[in-house]
Amino acid sequence: MRPAHPTEQAVGMDHYVSDADGVGGHLREEDEHFRVRELERFSTQPVDAPTDAYPHLVFRVTLSGWDTNDFASRLSNALEMSRERVNWAGTKDKYAVTTQLFSVYGADPGDLPDVDGAEIEVLGRAGRNLEFGDLAGNAFELVVSEPDRPDNASEITDELHEFGGLDSPNAAGVSVGVPNFFGQQRFGSRRPVTHKVGLEIARGSWEGAVMAYLGNPTDEEPESTQEARAFVQETRDWQEALERFPNRLRYERSMLHGVVDCDGEPGPEDFRAALERVPSNLQRLFVHAAQSYAFNLMLSERLERGLPFDEPVEGDVVCFADTDAPEGLELPDTDRLQRVDERRVRSVTRHCERGRAFVTAPLVGTETELADGEQGEIERAVLDDLGLAPEDFDLPGEFHSTGTRRAMLVRTDLEVETDPLTLSFALPKGSYATVVLREYLKVDPVDLG
Questions:
Q1: What's the pTM?
Q2: How confident is the model at residue 66, as a pLDDT?
Q3: What CATH number does the domain containing 87 carry?
Q4: Could you give the C-alpha distances from 45 to 58, 89, 107, 294, in angstroms and in order?
Q5: Could you name the active-site residues (predicted)?
Q6: Which of 80, 185, 224, 300 holds its CA 20 to 30 A away from the CA of 385?
């Protein structure tokens, strides 16, 4: 193992598992260099199916230069209907070429608009709208621009193949494995603070959570923004801070308005109300990022101790594979858990070797049951260091979380082309392409996009 980039260490990714020097370079020099195609499991009926039974029109869209949410808004405006009637299974980035499914309630194929940067293919009709559960995973084709050491990709691939505990390479590509870390995007690529906000929320410090979001200036931001953050951090002068924060920082300004508008000196409930002024999905993200940070720390500590990721040790909790996954995709089903005692280690190891089971770590919440044995020691030590316990997530509204568990290892068949250096692979939903790419490039996370 070798130490990770300091920015990655700040969000719990302490090491690379490959020792070879990275290829260097960067991603996303052009949108076409970052291609993502959804792997879905959603059946449709013919377009001429009766609309009373199948009212949802389903179509596949290839987008260039479009964020999923922005395209959905453009679509609903063109169709003159509520945004709530447009649904999709997974959110995709603007700076990429992405292919994904959409469904629209009460539309006909002829109603769909021509949109620059969007190619629409009508697939049929369905009796319900698309949901997050319909997304099984994503297939990626990623070009590395200006690599310094492209020939190192082969050595890195060999090391990741060994880490994944897999059989010999196959004709289609090489099977590789990496720790299933949450990538930098989970915490903020240029200003990784969402987990800091979530940790304060879970600790019951509503003022601390507001300050974690308003303060914490970074060098990546404009000087005026850094100054505004430093000012509110040092003075707690909410009214003057509101004057200093740029209008483009609308969530920060919304929080500040919440504090300024309270009667008298703000108390815990006022700070909580200020946090609740941001969109509900961001409120959830704060807590999810705190859980993700703890998860990353647990994986880093397991690496430090030299415990395997591809097979269990006594005390581990494993989940089993989703039998409905698309061909070639290992998809963990975290609703099917089993604690591994001494009697089960050998049998569960065989399941892991065949891709039928996966060792897990917790995304801690109110219903989390921690592992036993050495992994249980790791989980309890990380939570103790963070000042957290499962019951701390018994929070109001969008901040509440019951928790779940997540596979520690993500494996995929990977193909490498050399001119230009291109990596192609597929991952289950919730896993990050940049967590695979970081092992290859070993650069500042900013260059991973």
A1: 0.93
A2: 93
A3: 3.30.70.3160
A4: 9, 18, 15, 43
A5: 93 (nucleophile)
A6: 185
